[in-house]
Design a protein that fits this description.
- The complex is a heterodimer of chains A (387) and B (146).
- Chain A is an alpha/beta fold and 387 residues long.
- In chain A, a hairpin with a 2-residue loop joins β5 and β6.
- In chain A, 37% of the residues lie in helices and 20% in strands.
- In chain A, the strands form three sheets. Chain A has a five-stranded mixed β-sheet with strand order 1-7-4-2-3, sandwiched between helices. In chain A, strands 8-11-10-9 form a four-stranded mixed β-sheet, sandwiched between helices.
- The relative contact order of chain A is 0.20.
- Chain B is mainly beta and 146 residues long.
- Chain B is globular, with a radius of gyration of 16 Å.
- The chains are: A alpha/beta (387), B mainly beta (146).
Chain lengths: 387, 146
């Protein structure tokens, strides 16, 4: 397998757009990425379209990518529809990488788009609820807010994390989102406002959850030879790993731990080499558990980390400089690719007011989706390196 | 939805496939035990995902009615079709099975905590067009003063 580089990235501002369509966002993100890369659109040889819920929201099934690429103007080439719930974007990225690394193509596009906001909240909530096993946990009414609240509360009881500490993650992410022109929410919030907002499932309150929203993000990957003729800093994919839930025994390592160990091994680095990360904060407090599961800090140490500001822009390991899912938003199919877009900007020194300094060398993206047997169904981790 | 334990003479099906069976006139939780590694899976499975060896069938095993609350969540928001508030929980059974369930008879929720004992409750969800009763499993926490 040969080295693969990020040639171009692009995304739309996430938000609630009743009048815009999936095709509309996708066009904007794809052409942003094409212009960013400097390649001609005709050079794209293969495309992966990531989307989780359009079937339920708009009714478009089975050929979503082909209908979207019709609008974008890219037809004829192999196009694949990729669905892995909220990890769809990362899954498309993984496959685009595989297509170039294997030598099958020299240039591949991964585009993710979602339209979750349709003016009917029940429809959106129903769509999200289909990301559990409908025969089993789904039939019993398992909800993501419930699962997250259980994990967070158990962690708080085990390690003494406080309500204030879990609220601080939402505060940090909103502070970062305030600096991001692409973020859905750009308002700052206080610990008191977060704790005082509507209770969803104790201890998760409304301001800790990610918003319902729409948007798209696109990443173009290519070989070293293609990169060499572009005027682009070299951002290489050091590793990209995707794993599936197991029926874990009590005491087993969870899916984020397993996936990240594989990603670090393949990249030849350890967690302390990571300079910036984009993480899947479906509810903001989960970020604390992720710091530990990814090996950034020891079990139970994440509360201390958030108190000390370690993961703020300006701290020693900024997490979610984009604002994360909680502030930037979470149009499911787009999220994994929006993470790569942000990290690419960071590695190139193009992140504006959010720029991590000194310019990072290693960046890590963690994206998860769905739930099977109590574990996240699909987790993808990508490590990028600035050469 | 009514709460009952013993099966009556009507035909019944479980709400969630591969979770309930009859044992000496009572509805019980059923699981599968792998003949090779002895690991127990709930709901019951056709093949052990660890061993992936279909040369011998999985053994059916009845699970204990009593367990301990490992975690719980009082949900105040839910998708359409689910009432609020309701309580989701993971129960640990002695067979080293951790199962997802909903709690019943938990009062106002203020006395719920990790580690409480909980008992299996079989509930009738409703009857289908073929006249079969749909049965589900829930757990009832045992508070100190019970």
């Amino acid at each position: 397998m040969r080295p693969v580089y990020v040639l171009g990235v692009g995304m739309t501002k996430f938000g609630k757009y009743i009048e815009r369509s999936l095709k509309d966002f996708s066009f904007e993100a794809a052409w942003n990425a094409i212009h960013d890369s400097g390649i001609r659109a005709k050079e794209i040889e293969m495309a992966f379209f990531a989307n989780a819920y359009a079937g339920l929201i708009t009714g478009q099934e089975s050929i979503r990518g082909q209908t979207v690429f019709r609008e974008i103007g890219l037809m004829g080439i192999p196009i694949f529809n990729i669905e892995n719930a909220c990890a769809s974007g990362s899954s498309a990225f993984y496959l685009a990488h595989l297509a170039v690394a294997s030598g099958q193509v020299d240039i591949a596009l991964a585009l993710g788009a979602e339209k979750l906001f349709c003016g009917d909240l029940n429809k959106s909530l129903h769509a999200l609820s289909t990301s559990s096993d409908l025969d089993i946990e789904g039939r019993m009414g398992m909800l993501f807010a419930g699962i997250y609240s259980m994990r967070v509360r158990n962690h708080m009881e085990k390690y003494g994390l406080t309500k204030e500490q879990i609220a601080k993650v939402a505060v940090k992410n909103h502070d970062h989102g305030a600096l991001n022109p692409y973020a859905q929410y750009r308002n700052r919030v206080s610990v008191d406002e977060v704790l005082g907002s509507r209770m969803i499932a104790d201890p998760i309150t409304l301001l800790m959850t990610c918003p319902m929203g729409d948007g798209a993000a696109a990443v173009i990957l290519g070989s070293e030879e293609v990169l060499s003729r572009l005027n682009q800093p070299a951002v290489r994919i050091a590793s990209t790993v995707l794993q599936t839930a197991r029926i874990s025994k009590i005491g087993d390592k969870g899916i984020v731990e397993r996936t990240s160990r594989e990603a670090y091994n393949k990249a030849g680095i350890s967690p302390k080499d990571v300079n910036v990360a984009e993480l899947h904060d479906a509810v903001a407090p989960i970020e604390l558990l992720l710091y530990e599961q990814l090996g950034f800090c020891k079990p139970g140490e994440s509360g201390h980390w958030i108190d000390e500001g370690v993961t703020r822009i300006g701290g020693s390991l900024p997490a979610n400089p984009s604002g994360g899912l909680s502030s930037k938003g979470h149009p499911a199919g787009a999220t994994g690719l929006a993470q790569i877009t942000e990290l690419t900007w960071q590695l190139r020194g193009e992140a504006g007011e959010r720029q991590v300094k000194p310019i990072p060398k290693f960046a890590l993206a963690e994206n998860g989706g769905g739930n099977v047997a109590g574990e996240t169904a699909a987790v993808a981790i990508h490590i990028l390196i600035r050469e | 939805m009514s709460i009952q334990r013993k099966v009556n003479m009507k035909k019944w099906v479980p709400e969630v496939p591969n979770t309930l069976g009859e044992d000496r006139g009572e509805i019980r939780l059923i699981s599968s035990e792998c003949p090779l590694c002895k690991r127990i899976f709930f709901p019951a499975v056709k093949i052990c995902p660890d061993c992936l060896d279909d040369s011998q069938p999985m053994k059916k095993k009845i699970l204990n009615n009593n367990g301990k609350i490992f975690s719980f969540s009082i949900a105040q928001v839910a998708p359409p079709g689910y009432e609020v508030p309701h309580v989701q929980a993971y129960i640990d059974l002695p067979e080293r099975v951790r199962l997802f369930t909903l709690l019943v008879k938990y009062g106002d929720g203020s006395k719920l905590k990790k580690g409480l004992f909980a008992k299996l409750v079989i509930v009738m969800i409703g009857e289908d067009k073929e006249g079969r009763e749909h049965l589900g499993y829930r757990f009832r926490p045992i508070f100190e003063e019970d």
